[in-house]
């Protein structure tokens, strides 16, 4: 029987730390500010952006929500980014992903002032993560996963960690964090082309699933006693739910929970941590920029 890692509770604790830091920044004359830019009308994005702005409000962080129509041009979006880069009230800038198809997301990320890139997606921050330079911003979702491992008391040193997925947002930074000095896991990054994916996963003491395929990880992929971190947030049709869908992770939760020593649920696992770590990064930026 496994222990459920309560992401909501850990996120609440992180937000309490943030509350203290907001007070301390304000005592130093700094009001931290976050700008969230949403292009288009993706309903899931609207939910996430709403909860980011709400969390800022709860903590006393100034927030600015910038909603732009789907037809916004690349040039117009770059102008918005340039204005936020120059705005001293704004310490963190987040451009919600994914933007509409005609937007070159990589160019937008490169246009961000790296010192305000609280997502940690700018090449300068990617490099700082690889260099283990703490002045960079660690992407929020993998940072949240690391905090969950810590709070659950998971021994990472010498552990076999397997990350399924190699995205720039989760898989790749997660692998870097797990192999960092002081964390010291032995890391394998697997993906859709990996030979014998199930066999690779069965070697994992720590298994991180970040593929975006609902319930892909089955019980026979999980070693007895492994720790399972489920990064997936998939909407699957469910007529019995009033919203018409339910949220499920990349892990078949019930059957994997039987074998894992600890496991994160979806919802209530990694998702709330992503927002909490975004707040942390915004405060780090406010502290660094002053
Ligand atoms: N530039 C950028 N930065 C992001 O950080 C970013 C993004 N774009 N695009 C989309 C993804 C997704 N994301 C989530 C944040 C919180 C929950 C979350 O709180 N989930 C709740 C449930 C929410 C619900 O009910 O839908 C949970 O898992 O318990 C989920 C997903 C941030 N993202």
Automatic annotation (TrEMBL):
- Single GO cellular component annotation? cytosol
Query: What EC number(s) does the entry state?
Result: 1.5.1.5, 3.5.4.9
Q: In which pathway does it act?
A: One-carbon metabolism; tetrahydrofolate interconversion
Keywords noted in UniProt: Amino-acid biosynthesis, Histidine biosynthesis, Hydrolase, Methionine biosynthesis, Multifunctional enzyme, NADP, One-carbon metabolism, Oxidoreductase, Purine biosynthesis
Residue ranges occupied by any Tetrahydrofolate dehydrogenase/cyclohydrolase NAD(P)-binding domain in the UniProt entry: 139-287
Q: Which GO terms describe its biological process?
A: L-histidine biosynthetic process; methionine biosynthetic process; purine nucleotide biosynthetic process; tetrahydrofolate interconversion
Highest taxon listed in the record's lineage: Bacteria
Residues at which NADP(+) binds = 165-167, 233
Q: How does it assemble?
A: Homodimer.
This chain's function reads: Catalyzes the oxidation of 5,10-methylenetetrahydrofolate to 5,10-methenyltetrahydrofolate and then the hydrolysis of 5,10-methenyltetrahydrofolate to 10-formyltetrahydrofolate.
The entry's protein name is Bifunctional protein FolD
What species is given as this protein's source? Haloferula rosea
